[in-house]
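Forum > Structural Biology > Help requests

Title: Can anyone predict the 3D structure of Probable membrane transporter protein?

Hi all, first post here. I have the sequence for Probable membrane transporter protein but no way to get a structure on my laptop. I'd be grateful if someone could post the C-alpha cells.
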Amino acid sequence: MNTQEIIGYIAALVVGLVIGLAGGGGSILTVPVFVYLFSIPPILATTYSLFVVGVTSLVGSVAHLRAGRVDLRVTAAFALPSFVSVYLARRLLVPALPDPLFQFGTYALPKSEAILFFFAFVMIMAARAMIRNQRPEAGEAADGRPRYVPLALDGLAVGLLTGTIGAGGGFLIVPMLVLLAGLPVHRAVATSVLIIAANSFVGFLGDIHHTDLNYQFLLPFTGLSVIGIFGGLWLAPFIHPAHLRRGFGWFVLVVAGYIVLREVL
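Reply #1:
Sure, ran it for you. C-alpha cells for Probable membrane transporter protein below:
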C-alpha cells in the first residue's frame, strides 16, 4: 500500500466523520478520492460512491430514527419519486451517454471527463451554500402542512443528480425539507440522511447489472467510513454546525478547483 492509498483510506474516515457531524456533505468527497487517490475510472467511482454513501448514511439514519428525529411521511413523499429518477439514471441514462459526450472538430470531450466537470460544478454550488450558510430556520410550510407535489418534484431532480454523479445531494435536500415541509433544521438533517441512504442504494442497484465491483476494496473502505460516522455523531454536540459547514465548504471549494485544474491541464 503506497502513501497515496493510505491518504485515501484516511479520507474514508473523513467522509463518515463529516456525514455524522453535518448530516451530509462528506459524500461529495468520495468520487474525487476514488478517482485521484485510487485511480478508479470516474463512472465506476460514482458506483462505488453510491455504495459507500448508502451504507454510511444508513448507519447514521438508525441513530436519528432511534432518537425520533426522522419524519417518515416526508421521507416517503420525497424519496419515492426520487427512487424512480435515481434508478433510471443509473440503469439507463449514464450507460447510454455517448463517449465522447461532445465533439467539435478535433476536440472531443470524453464521458468520464464530462462527469468530473459536472461533479466539480456541483461541488462549487455546494461549497457556496455551505460558506454562505444558507440554511433557513423556517420556511413556507411552517404551518405544518408539507407541500407534497413540490417535494415530489424536488425528489425527482435530486434523484437525477444522485444517479448522475454518485453524491447524496444533502446540501439540496435539507433546504427543501425546511422550505417545503416546514421541518426544523435538526429534523430536516436527520430526514435527509435517511433519504440519502435510500437513494444511494437504489442507484447502486441500477448499476450492479452491468458493473463488475471489487468488494475486497469497497468493503474495507466503507467500513472505515462507518467508523468515521460514529466519530462524527459523538463529536456533533461539541462543534457549532455553522463553523463546521463553513470550514468544510472552503475545503470542498479547493477540491473542486483541483478537479477542474487536473482535467484541464
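The longest helix spans residues 42-66. The beta strands are 102-104, 107-109.
Shout if anything looks off.
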